[in-house]
Amino acid sequence: MTNGFRKAAFFVVMLVMVTGLSSWGFLVHKTVQQLAIYQLPAPMTPFFYGHADQLIYDAVRPDIRRNTDSTEAPKHFIDLEDFGNEAAHRMPLKWDAALKQYGKDSLLKYGYVPYQVVFLQQKLAEAFRRKNRDSILFYAADIGHYIADAHVPLHTTHNFDGQLTGQNGLHSLWETVVPEVEIESYKLYTNHHAQYLKEPEQAIWKAVRQAHALLPAVLAKEKEVSQNFTDAEKYRIQVRKGKEYKYYTSAFAKAYGAALKPTVNNQLLASAELIADFWYTSWVDAGQPDLSAIANWSDAKQAAYQQEYLLFQKNELLQHNKLQAKKKESGNR
Ligand SMILES: [Zn+2]
């Protein structure tokens, strides 16, 4: 059942990508990766800003990998209800202990995103230690993706698409359509500076718990807002290859986004902050290596960074066409 749904949900996601929207949509995954860069300390900036295009572009790679790699999906979510009562507070922090308690099959079936994040943190630290440019970029992009996924309430539940409560399509509504229609009004800056995580497991679990705690409102607001919409106003039907697909309309997404406010925006910013913390923590754990030889840095880049950083602080990246995920012209590879 679950797998069938996930396949169906994935198919819808693929369609959404084809129609120009994307999964957290591609918009948010790319945006949080970019915002995380501005929160790093000076010694890390040349490397991360110097390679920003690639980091941002690769922010969605794990979702694309799901297409070809059958082991990929459970890294993106955790269906907490399937791990027992109060699982968000009771699950072991360490993968080995979780394996012992639940067995591999359960973890592969019901998802293990928090463990994936900690696993990648170690990989990233190792890449920093070796000062291997490609490995650092690979693991930094990947860990950013999974951290962001852990902030999406519907990535923490077996009712991941609202399918158990008659709210099918809620997944992409919350994480893709709402940000697409609302981003102009979002706060896309934070005065957070990357912090060292003494207990990375606690940090990612805290994020999972917070996301999960938002779930009742995510579901309830959809019902609430629906009372003001007829079915024809709420959904649009698209026929593709003889099959009918139901999507929430932009009008509904706007009303739902307004009802949720500022939840989605907050989760977006919290994702970016924790990504910066994990990148920074991995770098510190590696002994704060000097990255200048692999940094792709120049005077021109430095000037561009300074200009962008000011726009970031003023929440004006978008207006000045500096938000990569929304960049007009050649910004999106
Ligand atoms: Zn994902």
Task: Give a verbal description of the structure.
The chain has 333 residues and is mainly alpha-helical. 58% of the residues lie in helices and 4% in strands. It has a two-stranded antiparallel sheet with strand order 1-2. A hairpin with a 2-residue loop joins β1 (235-240) and β2 (243-248). α2 (26-37) crosses α16 and α11 (170-182) packs across α15. The longest helix is centred in the last third of the chain and has 23 residues, at 263-285. It is globular. The chain binds zinc ion. Zinc ion (ZN) binds next to α5 and α10.
Number of helices: 17
Order of helices and strands: HHHHHHHHHHHHHHEEHHH
CATH class: Mainly Alpha
Helix content: 55-70%
Task: Characterize the biggest β-sheet.
Answer: 2 strands, antiparallel
CATH fold group: P1 Nuclease
- Estimate the mean pLDDT confidence: 91
CATH architecture: Orthogonal Bundle
- Could you tell me the strand content as a percent range? under 5%
Q: Globular, elongated, flat, extended or rod-shaped: what is the shape?
A: globular
Spatial order of the strands forming the largest sheet: 1-2
Number of domains: 1
Gap from first CA to last CA: 37 Å
User: Care to count the β-strands?
Assistant: 2
Cα-atom radius of gyration: 20 Å
Bound molecules: zinc ion
